[in-house]
């Protein structure tokens, strides 16, 4: 009888351990186009597969016209856009995702853990939110769709600048740039490209008055403020204009199926 009880307790313990591992395991839940993964112990990139397990320090990249979704447990979803490269540095408590360049979308619900997102210019502290970020070596742009995000700039050594957390709320965007003018030029280029890809929108755009066109085309450099060696911008964003971005609509449609 005693042996039977011990065996039963052992089985229950195994089940609980498996359940806990499943809760924190990360795997690729969607692959569209050309998506590659470099395992932490390997030198070569290989084609990513659906349901492939993602371990700490694995690297993932999406080529042009490609996307990928990674699920960590049941309540953490990370989506990677085209021309994006990331490193997942752990799935347990106090873990971090590093974005080398590109765009990602996060739908994260945490329970006692911490999850940081690192870009070349900042670290975002997440406790439960939906937001996206576009990043490169010059600038990081955040938009928050639920909850809030704390963003800290990095110094020249890649360390967090102490006592410099900017809290970004629902409906706000935050830009931190080495060169604001370079960011504005890139932003204008992307908007023009977006308009030209949709002729009907382009014709509507042409009918707008000059002031509206100017507001849509550019970000005013005067809106940026100096902070340390960076230029920063924090403001609300136009949700209707934001909805025209196919990347936003696609992610929000997928978010409807995410367990919160």
In short:
By secondary structure, the chain is α+β, with helices and mostly antiparallel strands.
Question: How would you describe this protein?
Answer:
This protein is α+β, with helices and mostly antiparallel strands and 260 residues long. It has a domain at 75-255: Jelly Rolls. The protein contains six helices and 18 strands. The chain has helices spanning 2-24, 180-196, 199-207, 210-217, 239-242, 246-255, and strands at residues 26-32, 35-38, 46-47, 53-54, 58-62, 67-72, 76-80, 84-88, 95-109, 115-118, 122-126, 128-135, 139-146, 148-153, 166-169, 172-177, 225-227, 230-236. It has an 18-stranded mixed beta sheet that branches. The N and C termini lie far apart (43 Å). The relative contact order is 0.10.
Topology:
Blueprint lengths: L1 H23 L1 E7 L2 E4 L7 E2 L5 E2 L3 E5 L4 E6 L3 E5 L3 E5 L6 E15 L5 E4 L3 E5 L1 E8 L3 E8 L1 E6 L12 E4 L2 E6 L2 H17 L2 H9 L2 H8 L7 E3 L2 E7 L2 H4 L3 H10 L5
Parallel strand pairs: 9-10
Antiparallel strand pairs: 1-4, 1-6, 2-3, 2-5, 5-8, 6-7, 7-9, 8-9, 9-12, 10-11, 11-14, 12-13, 13-16, 14-15, 16-18, 17-18
List keywords for this structure.
Jelly Rolls, 6 helices, 27% helix
CATH domain class of the domain at 75-255: Mainly Beta
- Head-to-tail CA distance between termini: 43 Å
**Largest sheet properties:** 18 strands, mixed
Q: What is the mean predicted local confidence, pLDDT?
A: 81
Query: How much strand?
Result: 35-45%
């Amino acid at each position: 009888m005693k042996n039977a009880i011990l065996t039963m307790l052992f089985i229950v313990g195994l089940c609980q351990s498996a359940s806990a591992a499943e809760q924190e395991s990360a795997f690729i839940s969607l692959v569209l186009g050309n998506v590659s993964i470099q395992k932490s112990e390997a030198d070569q990139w290989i084609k990513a597969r659906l349901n492939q397990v993602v371990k700490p320090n694995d690297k993932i990249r999406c080529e042009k016209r490609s996307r990928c979704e990674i699920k960590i447990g049941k309540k953490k979803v990370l989506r990677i856009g085209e021309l994006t490269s990331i490193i997942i540095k752990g799935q347990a408590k106090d873990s971090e995702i590093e974005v080398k360049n590109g765009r990602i979308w996060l739908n994260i619900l945490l329970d006692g853990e911490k999850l940081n997102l690192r870009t070349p210019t900042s670290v975002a502290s997440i406790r439960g939110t939906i937001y996206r970020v576009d990043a490169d070596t010059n600038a990081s742009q955040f938009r928050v769709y639920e909850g809030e995000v704390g963003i800290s700039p990095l110094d020249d050594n890649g360390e967090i600048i102490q006592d410099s957390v900017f809290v970004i709320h629902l409906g706000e965007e935050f830009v931190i740039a080495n060169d604001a003018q370079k960011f504005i030029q890139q932003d204008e280029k992307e908007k023009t490209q977006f308009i030209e890809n949709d002729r009907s929108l382009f014709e509507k755009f042409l009918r707008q008055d000059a002031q509206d066109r100017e507001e849509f085309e550019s970000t005013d450099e005067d809106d940026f403020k100096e902070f340390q060696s960076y230029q920063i911008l924090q403001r609300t964003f136009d949700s209707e204009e934001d909805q025209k971005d196919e990347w936003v609509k696609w992610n929000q449609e997928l978010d409807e199926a995410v367990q919160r």
